[in-house]
UniProtKB/TrEMBL annotation:
<protein>
    <submittedName>
        <fullName>Uncharacterized protein</fullName>
    </submittedName>
</protein>
Length: 556
C-alpha cells in the first residue's frame, strides 16, 4: 500500500512555529553527588529548565526495551537512541536483529556474508567472540547457527577463538559451553569440515577491553588469535579451560590466553593472509578495540607484528561514527517513514548540525539509517569537523560553541521550520573517564544551549531539549547497594560507559501554546515518544502507528 504522506492538522496547535530540537549526548538524570558531572558543573540554563514549570520537564527511558534492545539491562547508545528519536517507533536492535536475520536467512544473502564467503575456497573462517549464553554481548545459539550456516555455504576450514565469560553468567559455566561447542565442531569434522577451537582466554584479560582502557588486553588476544602465540598451549579447548580453572583463584573472566596446538606443538589456527574473520558479539562496546586492530591500516596502540590481509566483518557495525567495521553480517534496521521524512514532505524546512563524531546521529540515524537528504531543496545539514589526534578530555569544550553559533544563525535566518542539533560533550568526554574534564564539558554544553535558546526567543519559536542516553551523570561504578565500587587498591572504579538512567525532555519557548503540558498517563515514556511530540509542536498529528505524544493541550 502506498504511504500517504499528508499529516493531519493538530486540532489545537498552530503550524508555522520554528521548532528547535537539542540533543545533549550522554546527559542522563541521576542522584546529585560528586560523581555526577552534570550536577557538579555550572549549568544554569538546564537547571532553569528542570526547576521551572514542572509540566514542561519530564524524564523518559533511553535504554533497553524502550530503544529496541533485548533487555532492560542493556544500556542505550547514540545509534539506537537517535533511531528512536527520529523514527517515533521502536525497532529491534542488537541481539533481536541478529535473531531475525538468522531466522529469515537474510544474513546469508546480505553483503557482509558474501564478502567473507570469498575467502572460503582457499582460506580459513575465524570466529572470535564471547562463548556464553548470557545474551548481553553474544549468545551461544547464534554462534552455533553461524557455524552451521557457514559450513553449509562452503566454509571448509573454521577456527573458533573463544572468550570465556563468568560475568554475565556463572563463573565456571565456561566448561559446559566449551563441551557444547566442541561437540558441535566434532560433528562438523564428521561431515568433512576442518573445524576446531584455535585459541581462547578470559573476557576481561583477553580481547574484550572497552573505551581504550587497556590495550594490553587486546594485544594478548591479538597474539593468540592472529599470531598463534600464548603462554599456555593445549591439545584441546576443554583441556585448556579445565586446567586453567584448576589454578588457585582462577575465574572465567580472567583466564590467561591460550592456543591449541597440534602434535608438533604448532598453533592450529593463526589468522593469515587470505582468511576471513567474523567477530560474533552483537554488543559493540567490547568489540570496537579489536575491530580497530583488525581493520585500521594506521594503528599505533600496540605492535601487531604481522597484519594479515583478511576479509573482516562484524556481526553488526559496532561504531556508526567510525563506520567500524566497514563490513557486517547484519544490517541496522532500515526504518521507513521517519518523522523527518514526514515533516519534509509536509513542507517543514529542516536544518541539522553537529560535529563529526555525532553528525551522523542527527542525520543518518535520525532518518532511519538512511544517507542523504529527503528533499535537498528543503534541508541543509552542516558538519563541523571534530578535533582529531587528541582525546576529548584534552579539549572538553569540543565544538559546542561552533555548533551553537551555526544553529543560532540558522534560526535567525528565517529559512527553516525545524532545527535539530547534537551537542556531544557529555558523552564523548564522559567516555574518557576524566571527571574534571567532563564537568567542563557539561558547562560548555549548557553555554551552547543558552546561545540556541536565546535565538529561539528572538524569533518566537519553540524548543525541545532532550538526550539520547546517560553518561556524564554517573561516572563511578557502583556496588549492589549503590555505593561507589572500589578496586583492589581501594581506589574508586571510574565508569566510562553509558548508563541505564532516564533522560530529560524539556519544552518551552515563546511560540509554545500556553496550554501545552506533559501528559502523566503514559506508562513508560521513552525516546520514541519524542517524534510524535515534535510533530505536534509543528502543528501536525503523528501517524497512528507512532508511539504516542508526550504532550497534551489543556483548554485555558
Amino acid at each position: 500500500m502506498a504511504t500517504s504522506w499528508t499529516l493531519p492538522d493538530h486540532p489545537k496547535l498552530p503550524k508555522g512555529k520554528l521548532v528547535t530540537i537539542i540533543v545533549l549526548d550522554g546527559w542522563g538524570e541521576a542522584t546529585a553527588d560528586q560523581y555526577n558531572c552534570i550536577h557538579r558543573a555550572e549549568t544554569p540554563v538546564m537547571d532553569s529548565l528542570k526547576n521551572g514549570a514542572p509540566e514542561k520537564w519530564t524524564l523518559v527511558k533511553a535504554h533497553g526495551t524502550a530503544v529496541g534492545l533485548p533487555s532492560d539491562d542493556d544500556m542505550g547508545n547514540s545509534e539506537v537512541g537517535h533511531n528512536a528519536l527520529g523514527a517515533g517507533r521502536i525497532f529491534a536492535q542488537g541481539a533481536k536483529l541478529v535473531d531475525a536475520a538468522l531466522a529469515s536467512g537474510k544474513i546469508w544473502e546480505d553483503e557482509g556474508f558474501n564478502y567473507i564467503k570469498e575467502s572460503f575456497a582457499e582460506g580459513t573462517l575465524h570466529l572470535i567472540g564471547l562463548l556464553s549464553d548470557g545474551g548481553v554481548h553474544s549468545r551461544l545459539d547464534q554462534v552455533q547457527l553461524l557455524l552451521k550456516g557457514a559450513s553449509e555455504r562452503g566454509a571448509k576450514r573454521i577456527r573458533l577463538h573463544i572468550l570465556t565469560d563468568g560475568r554475565d553468567v556463572l563463573d565456571g559455566s565456561s566448561v559446559g559451553f566449551v563441551e557444547t561447542i566442541e561437540n558441535d565442531l566434532a560433528q562438523l569434522r564428521e561431515k568433512g569440515v576442518d573445524a576446531r577451537v584455535a585459541s581462547g582466554g578470559g573476557r576481561m584479560y583477553v580481547t574484550m577491553d572497552r573505551y581504550e582502557n587497556d590495550w594490553g588486553v587486546v594485544k594478548r588476544g591479538w597474539d593468540a588469535q592472529v599470531l598463534g602465540e600464548a603462554p599456555y598451549k593445549f591439545k584441546s579447548a576443554l583441556e585448556a579451560v579445565k586446567t586453567l580453572r584448576a589454578e588457585p583463584k582462577a575465574n572465567d573472566q580472567y583466564l590467561p590466553p591460550f592456543v591449541i596446538v597440534d602434535e608438533s606443538g604448532k598453533s592450529v589456527g593463526p589468522i593469515v593472509d587470505g582468511d576471513a574473520v567474523v567477530t560474533f558479539n552483537f554488543r559493540a562496546d567490547r568489540m570496537v578495540m579489536l575491530a580497530k586492530a583488525l581493520e585500521f591500516a594506521d594503528f599505533d596502540k600496540f605492535d601487531r607484528v604481522r597484519v594479515p590481509k583478511i576479509k573482516y566483518a562484524g556481526m553488526l557495525q559496532y561504531d556508526g561514527e567510525l563506520k567500524l567495521p566497514n563490513k557486517f553480517l547484519v544490517s541496522p534496521p532500515l526504518i521507513e517513514r521517519t518523522s523527518g521524512e514526514y515533516l519534509v514532505k509536509n513542507g517543514v524546512r529542516t536544518f541539522a548540525c553537529s560535529e563529526t563524531v555525532k553528525f551522523g546521529h542527527v542525520t543518518f540515524f535520525w532518518n532511519g539509517n538512511r544517507s542523504g537528504y529527503f528533499d535537498e531543496t528543503k534541508e541543509e545539514y552542516i558538519e563541523i569537523p571534530s578535533d582529531s589526534g587528541i582525546t576529548f578530555n584534552e579539549q572538553p569544550k569540543m565544538k559546542a560553541l561552533e555548533i551553537a553559533e551555526k544553529t543560532r544563525d540558522a534560526i535567525l535566518s528565517g529559512k527553516f521550520d525545524q532545527v535539530r542539533i547534537n551537542l556531544p560533550n557529555g558523552d564523548m568526554v564522559g567516555h574518557t573517564g576524566d571527571i574534571e574534564a567532563t564537568v567542563v564539558a557539561c558547562k560548555a554544553a549548557d553555554e551552547a544551549v543558552k546561545i540556541v535558546l536565546d535565538a529561539v526567543e528572538k524569533v518566537g519559536g519553540i524548543y525541545l531539549v532532550t538526550a539520547d542516553h546517560g553518561n556524564a551523570e554517573d561516572m563511578v561504578k557502583r556496588n549492589k547497594s549503590g555505593q561507589p565500587a572500589l578496586d583492589k587498591s581501594g581506589s574508586i572504579q571510574i565508569l566510562t560507559s553509558h548508563t541505564l538512567q532516564p533522560v530529560p525532555v524539556a519544552i518551552g519557548g515563546p511560540g509554545l501554546h500556553p496550554g501545552v503540558k506533559f501528559r502523566t498517563d503514559i506508562n513508560t515514556p521513552g525516546l520514541a515518544n519524542v517524534a510524535a511530540t515534535v510533530m505536534n509542536l509543528h502543528g501536525f498529528l503523528a501517524p497512528d502507528d507512532f508511539e504516542t505524544t508526550l504532550i497534551e493541550v489543556a483548554d485555558k
